[in-house]
């Protein structure tokens, strides 16, 4: 991992499935060496955009560029040395150990008839250490808890030693303690290594706390972007999620904190009844 600034951007992206457009005309420039989070309601195109950025989906039109080069023109191994991806709900190969799964992150650096060298082993060990799972190295991934498995998958992505890391809902299906733990570990990675991180998250409060920059989508279009303190407002939440809320200051992080009004818990309404 070189900790260099990579210019990672998408221009006029139109993407979808079976000719159905999900993402429509999006232009974004990902801040280098920062944590960016893509937010929006279910079905708005968050995961489709991330998959397009990762070259899992070929755009109908538009282009994704790294340092001015189209990712569609880059050889797979070359791209994998720059761009890492943790997809949503990855499938665990049956019976594989933690160490073996993490070592698969070194695939972009492997060549025919060449076994792993010292640098590969060091990358795997460092990734295990960063994610705090060194003692699990010889355990079967099948035996681990959801939070531990997620650490293993992130460690595999780290073993690629890329400058850019994309994660599609890395906290899904985890309880709140594991969610915070995973996001803290990713923040540590960003601060220590300068890794450019782009995540899709469902929880807007966690997004506001951990993101340096937010991209807000609605119906496949980018409607707002910027620092959480600048863009997270009741108006944005109403537009993106259709939710009536107030925005207060998080007492821990001093970032915006969303408090939904709801129909049944408004003190003003209750007192007037």
Could you explain the architecture of this structure?
This protein is 33% helix and 26% strand. With 273 residues, it is of the alpha/beta class. The longest helix has 18 residues, at 176-193. The N and C termini lie far apart (61 Å). The model has no long low-confidence stretch (mean pLDDT 91).
Concise structural overview:
The protein is of the alpha/beta class. It is built from ten helices and twelve strands.
Produce the secondary structure layout.
Blueprint lengths: L7 E10 L2 E11 L4 E5 L6 H8 L7 E6 L2 E2 L5 H5 L2 E4 L11 H6 L14 H13 L15 H14 L4 E5 L7 H18 L2 E5 L3 H7 L2 E6 L2 E6 L1 H4 L2 H8 L3 E5 L6 E5 L6 H6 L1
Parallel strand pairs: 3-8, 3-9, 6-7, 7-8
Antiparallel strand pairs: 1-2, 1-4, 4-5, 9-10, 11-12
Helix fraction bin: 25-40%
DSSP E strands, number? 12
Shape: globular
- Into which percentage range does the β-strand content fall? 25-35%
Cα distance spanning the termini: 61 Å
Low-confidence stretches: none
Mean pLDDT, to the nearest integer, reads: 91
**What is Rg?**
20 Å
């Amino acid at each position: 991992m070189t900790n260099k600034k990579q210019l990672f951007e998408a221009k006029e992206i139109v993407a979808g499935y079976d000719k159905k457009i999900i993402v429509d005309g999006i232009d974004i420039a990902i801040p280098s060496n920062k944590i960016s989070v893509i937010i929006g309601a279910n079905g708005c195109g968050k995961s489709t955009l991330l998959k397009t950025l990762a070259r899992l989906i070929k755009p109908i039109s538009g282009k994704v560029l790294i340092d001015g080069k189209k990712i569609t023109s880059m050889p797979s191994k070359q791209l994998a040395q720059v761009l890492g991806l943790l997809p949503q709900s990855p499938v665990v190969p049956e019976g594989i150990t933690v160490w073996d799964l993490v070592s698969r992150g070194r695939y972009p650096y492997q060549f025919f008839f060449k076994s792993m060298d010292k640098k590969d082993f060091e990358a795997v060990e460092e990734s295990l250490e960063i994610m705090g799972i060194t003692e699990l190295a010889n355990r079967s991934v099948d035996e681990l808890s959801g939070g531990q498995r997620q650490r293993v998958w992130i460690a595999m992505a780290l073993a690629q030693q890329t400058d850019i890391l994309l994660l599609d809902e890395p906290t899904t299906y985890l309880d709140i303690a594991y969610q915070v733990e995973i996001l803290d570990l990713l923040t540590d990675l960003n601060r220590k290594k300068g890794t450019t991180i782009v995540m899709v998250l469902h929880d807007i409060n966690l997004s506001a706390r951990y993101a340096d920059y937010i991209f807000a989508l609605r119906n496949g279009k980018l409607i707002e972007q910027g620092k959480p303190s600048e863009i997270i407002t009741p108006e944005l939440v109403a537009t993106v999620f259709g939710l009536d809320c107030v925005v207060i200051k998080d007492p821990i992080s001093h970032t915006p904190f969303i408090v939904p009004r709801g129909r049944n818990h408004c003190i003003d309404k209750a007192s007037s009844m």
